[in-house]
């Protein structure tokens, strides 16, 4: 196994995008940022040098961080962020996972421009991919772009108490494409040879939007999601929510020419809240494309096509090879977590707030980040007053919202099942789907559906080959059931990956205690960004 080492200098970068000159913050002046490529079994070392004026944590989205929660990079959960002019070296091993993951800033909206792919190939000398080795592999990072400094976009969201202003464009590998009002906006292009199979490693790095993705004239075979292999699934459309990845094979058997790839928003909200209606485009160019060929556009579904989205999400099954972890059948903690958004009166500091602000909650608790301390260090140092261990196992009978730093205690190796229930089935306050992401673990998605979870659905749980993910798109007004083994002591955040919902409180934390074998978690690494 090798050591894969990178240095990320996070600092200002001048960019001309959408006919606007902006200063954004990126790693190594790249958008998307550098791709980390490793093999399963490798150690990754990333020196993050913070040359930005903002405090910064970098999260390795989907990496297990076994006995290494200190490197999870979740601001105020597992560290206190790297201060301006500071630096920190993240060290982690990659064990037991292969496929496409990504990394992103985990503090304020900085993730909009500070992110990149994290690709894990099979360990040398193993069976390799469970599909034909592709001729080429290409990361496709889908993103969202604001002309305004995203830090200010975030401040504005706080002052209004609502979501951030909608983005100015969607992007493919950092470029908006040629369907925006700005003539001459950048277009991502990939060149392909005819009759070859390519692996597209698609990442939704957008901040607040779920996306449809298509490639004109071509079909996909999905072979992995969230760095977990799936049974091959043939489709002409990919549906992907923020935080998720999809690995899809596509064969270049179309007549040599130019083909658009396109991404547009999937938004199932039933209330009329404005959203980004643009389409990001990129171009697939066959090497033998005749001169002056015009690219063809894929036909995209309507923005609210919940049937297409639901079909895609529900059709995936895990590859479940011999030796892969089986679905645990004994459950130690069975939770129902109902989550959603509510209105509350404006807080005094919300100067631009007119009548109400939004507040989000899970089982009646609106998650508050601790102040000047992070939960993992507090756990390690035995400072229990920083949080309360009273996260409820089920929704409160009478709707009530408490603002608290509430965690749920789980013993090492216990099995947790969560019915994730979107509360929108009750009040219809924007039945958008919420991508719920769990740090530190993969989970099995046993079933998902619309409306209120009916316990009879337990009869149709897939306990044989469910898809394995770290982020599940819980349908608007619907539900998904996940199950995982808490085999990693630490403080693990579970939250909505729509960035706008994080400061509103749409999260909770699993406090996985060491259990019978004490002190499994080693002390914090050298230079760890601590608060005190
Ligand atoms: Cu990709 Cu807590 O996030």
TrEMBL record:
Q: Which GO terms describe its biological process?
A: lignin catabolic process
Where it mainly occurs, coarsely classed, is: secreted
Q: Which EC number(s) are documented for this chain?
A: 1.10.3.2
Which one Pfam family would you cite for this protein? Cu-oxidase_2
**Gene Ontology MF terms:** copper ion binding; hydroquinone:oxygen oxidoreductase activity
Q: Where in the cell is it found?
A: Secreted, Extracellular space, Apoplast
Q: What InterPro entries does the database record attribute to this sequence?
A: Cu-oxidase-like_N, Cu-oxidase_2nd, Cu-oxidase_C, Cu-oxidase_fam, Cu_oxidase_Cu_BS, Cupredoxin, CuRO_1_LCC, CuRO_2_LCC
Reaction(s) the record says it catalyses? 4 hydroquinone + O2 = 4 benzosemiquinone + 2 H2O
Cofactor list: Cu cation
Q: Which PROSITE patterns match?
A: MULTICOPPER_OXIDASE2
Its function, per the record, reads: Lignin degradation and detoxification of lignin-derived products.
| NCBIfam families associated with the record | laccase
Record protein name field? Laccase
**What is the scientific name of the source organism?**
Lolium multiflorum (Italian ryegrass)
User: Lineage of the source organism?
Assistant: Eukaryota, Viridiplantae, Streptophyta, Embryophyta, Tracheophyta
């Amino acid at each position: 196994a090798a050591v894969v080492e990178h240095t990320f200098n996070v600092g200002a970068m001048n960019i001309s995008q959408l006919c606007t000159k902006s200063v954004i913050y990126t790693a190594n002046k790249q958008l998307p940022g550098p791709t980390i490529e490793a093999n399963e079994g490798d150690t990754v070392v990333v020196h993050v040098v913070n040359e930005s004026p903002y405090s910064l944590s970098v999260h390795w989205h989907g990496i297990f961080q076994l006995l290494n929660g200190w490197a999870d990079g979740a601001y105020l959960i597992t560290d206190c962020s790297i201060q301006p002019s500071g630096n920190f070296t993240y060290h982690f091993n990659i064990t037991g996972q292969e496929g496409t993951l990504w990394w992103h800033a985990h503090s304020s909206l900085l993730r909009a421009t500070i992110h990149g792919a994290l690709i894990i190939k099979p360990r040398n000398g193993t069976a390799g991919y469970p599909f034909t080795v592709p001729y080429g592999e290409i990361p496709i990072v889908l993103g969202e772009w604001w002309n305004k400094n995203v830090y200010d976009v975030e401040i504005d969201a706080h002052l209004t108490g609502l979501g951030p202003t909608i983005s100015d464009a969607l992007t493919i590998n950092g470029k908006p494409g040629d369907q925006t009002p700005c003539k001459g906006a950048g277009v991502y292009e990939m060149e392909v040879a005819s009759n070859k199979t390519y692996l597209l490693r698609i990442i939704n790095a957008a901040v607040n939007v779920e996306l449809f993705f298509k490639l004109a004239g071509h079909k996909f075979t999905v072979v992995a999601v969230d760095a977990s292999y799936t049974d091959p699934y043939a489709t002409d459309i990919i549906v992907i929510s923020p935080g998720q990845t999809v690995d899809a094979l596509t064969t270049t058997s179309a007549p040599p020419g130019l083909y658009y790839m396109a991404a547009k928003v999937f938004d199932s909200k039933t209330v009329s809240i404005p959203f980004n209606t643009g389409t990001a485009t990129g171009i697939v160019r066959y090497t033998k494309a005749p001169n002056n060929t015009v690219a063809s556009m894929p036909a995209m579904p309507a923005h609210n096509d919940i049937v297409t989205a639901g079909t895609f999400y529900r059709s995936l099954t895990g590859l479940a090879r011999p030796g892969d972890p089986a679905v645990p059948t004994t459950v130690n903690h069975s939770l129902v977590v109902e989550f959603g958004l509510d209105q509350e009166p404006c807080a005094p500091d919300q100067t631009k707030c007119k009548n109400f602000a939004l507040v989000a909650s899970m089982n009646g608790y609106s998650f508050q980040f601790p102040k000047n301390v992070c939960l993992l260090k507090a756990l390690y140092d035995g400072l229990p007053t920083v949080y309360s261990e009273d996260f409820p196992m089920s929704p409160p009978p009478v709707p009530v919202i408490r603002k608290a730093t509430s965690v749920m205690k789980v013993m090492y190796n216990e099995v947790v099942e969560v019915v994730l229930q979107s509360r929108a089935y009750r009040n219809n306050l924007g039945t958008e789907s919420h991508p719920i992401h769990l740090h530190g673990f993969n989970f099995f998605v046993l079933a998902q559906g619309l409306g209120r979870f009916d316990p009879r659905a337990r009869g149709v749980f897939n306990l044989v080959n469910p898809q394995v993910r770290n982020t599940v798109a819980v349908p608007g007004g619907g539900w998904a059931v996940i199950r995982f083994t808490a085999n990693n002591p630490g403080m693990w955040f579970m939250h909505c990956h729509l960035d706008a919902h994080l400061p509103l409180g749409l999260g909770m934390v699993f406090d996985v205690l060491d259990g019978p074998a004490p002190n499994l978690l080693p002390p914090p690494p050298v230079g760890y960004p601590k608060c005190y």
